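The following block was generated as part of the benchmark described in Methods. Ligand: pyridoxal-5'-phosphate.
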Amino acid sequence: MSDFKDEVMKMKFSTRIQQMQESPVRKLVPYAQRAKANGKHVYHLNIGQPDIETPSVFMDAINDYDSKIIKYSFSQGEPTLITAIQKYFARDDIFFEHDEILITNGGSEAVTFATIAMCDPGDEILVPEPFYTNYNGFTGEVNVNIKPITTVAEEGFHLPPQKEIEALITPKTKAILFSNPGNPTGTVLTKEEMLMIADIAIKHDLFIISDEVYRGFAFDGLEGISMGTIKSVSDRTLIIESVSKRYSACGARIGSIASKNKELMKQILKLCQARLCVATLEQIGAAALYQLPTEYTESIRAEYEARRDIVYETLNQIPGVVCEKPTGAFYVVAKLPVANAEEFIIWMLTEFSDHNETVMMAPAEGFYATKGIGIDEVRIAYVLNTKEMARAMELLKIALEEYNKN
Ligand SMILES: Cc1ncc(COP(=O)(O)O)c(C=O)c1O
């Protein structure tokens, strides 16, 4: 009789899947679950899941949707949503025609589709590091390699000089991908940096994938401009959008791709057709979100700025912590006075508590492609209200004191 276990053991997994890393944002979750099962309160600063209520217009629009059948939507996306996104961009004098926008399953699918359309297996994409860790997944699953442009905390994670970036370009380099404002850094690119990216792209014939899912969340009076405003590269720029963060609708899974390069859009449409469509009802809800006035985004931006202030001020008061003031999104990367941030996070979840409370952060190492850097860094997502953030930062301070006593 055959032994089922042995048969399973004979099966082989692809090299591609085995090389894929576990999400640094989620891999420590079992420790948090155990802490919670033991009655400990855990402040979750490890994941970019905002606590802000999704605007009620989302559910209202879905409830008002009048159809007896939930049909497939168009592969390109629901026309009402595309129109709403066109108008959203037009507020900043960025004009896309209807066929220059495609709706995707979140910004995630948008990055994957862009990668597939621009790269063959073995090709390379330049990405400033630390970067949104799932870029590894979106590119790795189609055998495309990320070539990191290393940026450092001491320089506020701004880009190195053009020459250093150009030195990384090979015949296999097809695109440059970045999020602006940045996850995990919270860095907002300056106009000069964006023009430098444009110059590099033109000189070396690269595509630009501008991930703007945090656009609008820029602080200290910074504008946080879209790559769509840089006309010299509009034919090689592809913008990634999403309702996840801007409208606190992560579970809706609605994102989009916008590009003036119609041929590129025609190619990506084939990928959209191959996965049929994006969920119909969520697109209806998302169309209502994109019609919210700018005051809505402004109020959310102000809330994140207040949280940023608390986090940054407290972090700066903790001896040995290094962090530059982030100017956008809702993250900060901080160097901690510990040898290994992941071990410290696990210790906080398993051994530490103050009044039966603790904090969970994400180890930043997994946000780098270069091995050996970021080991003493954490990413903090300020996704809780100001009172809770203040308490979470107090807990971090107490925990570091206790950890470094031993
Ligand atoms: C920079 C960046 N891009 C894309 C995404 C994916 O977002 P979505 O929920 O739209 O797939 C995220 C999510 O955290 C992100 O931080």
